[in-house]
Amino acid sequence: xxxxxxxxxxxxxxxxxxxxxxxxxxxxxxxxxxxxxxxxxxxxxxxxxxxxxxxxxxxxxxxxxxxxxxxxxxxxxxxxxxxxxxxxxxxxxxxxxxxxxxxxxxxxxxxxxxxxxxxxxxxxxxxxxxxxxxxxxxxxxxxxxxxxxxxxxxxxxxxxxxxxxxxxxxxxxxxxxxxxxxxxxxxxxxxxxxxxxxxxxxxxxxxxxxxxxxxxxxxxxxxxxxxxxxxxxxxxxxxxxxxxxxxxxxxxxxxxxxxxxxxxxxxxxxxxxxxxxxxxxxxxxxxxxxxxxxxxxxxxxxxxxxxxxxxxxxxxxxxxxxxxxxxxxxxxxxxxxxxxxxxxxxxxxxxxxxxxxxxxxxxxxxxxxxxxxxxxxxxxxxxxxxxxxxxxxxxxxxxxxxxxxxxxxxxxxxxxxxxxxxxxxxxxxxxxxxxxxxxxxxxxxxxxxxxxxxxxxxxxxxxxxxxxxxxxxxxxxxxxxxxxxxxxxxxxxxxxxxxxxxxxxxxxxxxxxxxxxxxxxxxxxxxxxxxxxxxxxxxxxxxxxxxxxx
Length: 550
Known about the structure:
Elements: H1 3-9, H2 13-16, H3 22-35, E1 39-42, H4 46-60, E2 62-64, E3 70-72, E4 81-82, H5 86-94, H6 99-111, E5 122-124, E6 127-129, H7 139-150, H8 154-174, E7 184-185, E8 223-224, H9 226-245, H10 249-269, E9 271-272, E10 277-278, E11 280-281, E12 287-288, H11 294-299, H12 306-317, E13 352-353, H13 354-366, H14 370-384, E14 393-394, H15 408-422, E15 424-426, E16 432-435, E17 452-458, E18 461-467, E19 471-476, E20 479-485, E21 488-492, E22 498-503, E23 508-515, E24 518-525, E25 529-533, E26 536-541
Antiparallel strand pairs: 1-17, 2-3, 4-5, 5-6, 7-8, 9-10, 11-12, 13-14, 15-16, 16-21, 17-18, 18-19, 19-20, 20-23, 21-22, 22-25, 23-24, 25-26
Helix pairs in contact: 4-15, 5-6, 5-7, 5-15, 6-7, 6-8, 7-8, 7-9, 8-9, 9-10, 13-14, 13-15, 14-15
Pfam family, one: MGH1-like_GH
Protein name: Mannosylglycerate hydrolase MGH1-like glycoside hydrolase domain-containing protein
InterPro entries: 6-hairpin_glycosidase_sf, 6hp_glycosidase-like_sf, MGH1-like_GH
């Protein structure tokens, strides 16, 4: 037996992780073990030591809040659950590891919805708060992904659907005052962009701390906000999916029509064709020309086609003058004179924020830009080996940890990136990804993992993934199922059969795939997907690779 496989088989997470609060944490570790029993081990301990701490610290971020059942908290100085982050993208990642906690977290926002339809922007032990809206990642997308991944109940789906439909009505009533169809920002905190120059000379909170009111004497707000508008577009798109699943076919069609109307409003008002960028539009009709991570937020809401996304990759996301910092993604373009790299406080004026990092994944994967995505993940994983506190921010230049500690987005980023790049990842499409890429030893040549073995239970089977420099092995229920060349992703269907292979590295990966008694030689280039059909392989997707610019 491979020595790392043998080592991993002797790790029981319920004994390996020491809970800080055994009475609270023991049921969470049991849930972790029952759901997937996820863990990994490697030749080097640089990343495994951080991973172990990440699991431990994640438990510290889960606690009962106004209800008997525990929910996820933001962590650090943020005592509670925020809709823009904790209750959406953080919980979307958590759902792969602790789905019961994830579902309780989502349901909390429906439970504390106000009578007029406003969903609280945060939930704390002291109550639910409604002072601002604070929207980024679409809640409906996260709810739908959890439902598809974990087989959520119809009761859960219908409860969330009713709450989100009512909230859509509130937003169109109170945040469309200029009658453009765009959703408006009245304040900085509406988007969670604390200290961003995007909101210089705009108040942090809405007028009189009322989410329905905008300062009538401001010459700047309300902004037509591209990220808020894209959020509602994507929200409506996924509400259509949910309505269809619930048998509400007429409502589904209404949501589709409304979604397209919102998308048209976004491009009509907030998109600058010259710059290829989305900007706020102030009260005077001027673009607020600050290039920020608003771009990533909008793209993660599925508003672009593949051609547009490739163009923006080249112009912005992979441009070292813009957002492709050594440790991406900075919150403000690097060439903007207002860029401030200070990471010692809560700032969206320059530092790389972990929320921006984990939100970006959906944009890349929606457009099947897997190779380019790994270029943005690899440096963050290298920085993880130096984690001591799990901070909110990183220096975009050095990768050094910044503000606060025990912050659930950075904790979940560790769990997510290890699985997404090098492990076994179940998806909402009922497939399983085995990604044969190892962390690259880019920082001072120091070893991050070396070869590794990752485990996970999926659909009643126990999988072990031996991920080595040249070759990968998939073991299922202690039997060798498949081998394939490193640099590829093997995609299994929901029956556990090989469905396709994806090129995950720049250039062409050549080698032998051994599966189901057959040996097939393959040559697969970056971002290509090849369908496997009883030993025959056929290319079904080919986009090329967008390379970095300067």
